[in-house]
Amino acid sequence: MKKFIPVVLILIILVIGYELFYGKLFPYSPIVLGFSKFELKNIVVYVQKGTNYTDINEFDSLTLPVEEFHEMKFLKKPEIYIFRDSLEYIHHGFSKARFCAYTSGRLFISPWALREAGLGKISLRIYIRHELSHVLIFQHKGIIAGLKYPDWLLEGIAVYSTDQMGTSFYPGKKETYQAISRGNFMPPDVFKTKKEDDVKLDVKYRITFMYSEFACIVDYLIATYGKDKFVLYMKTLLKEDDNDKVFKRIYGVDFKNFLEDFKKYAVIATAQK
Asked: What is the pTM of this model?
């Protein structure tokens, strides 16, 4: 029995080590293996060996507009990771999305996202700025605490700040309001929970509609109460986790009541156009 315990511990350590360096835990690995490192002025790019992608200099100018909107600076240079093929991308993380920003501050770009950008289906600059918005917030919130930042707000800020509505698969502001006025609405507190699938949405692209909806909420907040108050709300949630409490203190209205006002506004705005 005494010999069995050390063997089990060794196996556990080996498995964790493998997952950190080569597997699903790679986004949080303290060591990066198998990638070439390119340190630019504002950003660091890691390109997996065997990858032909070389257009990395265009990434370096994308941090400034992100910092300007959020009125915060990156605490360290964001790290962008580019993978050799789709299997490597999926093997090295938890996401199958085109892009993924982890709370560790690392931004992964999938090979199929690069292909779609090359075909003109998506804007690589917009998508990367979107993910850099997440990275900036995660850097200030923290690796563990970053998981507690409201998911709807993360996406709403990213889509709104990059003018992503109306591009690629994302419905524009007018189209989003029209969909809301027809009864389509994802409650922010249900987003990314088990209850999300219970919400029926009659829209062309479910996920991009939700992101545009959240961007419209951000837009409405800024238009109604001003950018300064929104930045205060956004930054306060870096230190506190109770969205409803923070929202009520800053905006003077319950979050649920605000959402009802927002949905009414969507109906009025649609009727006026």
From this structure: 0.93
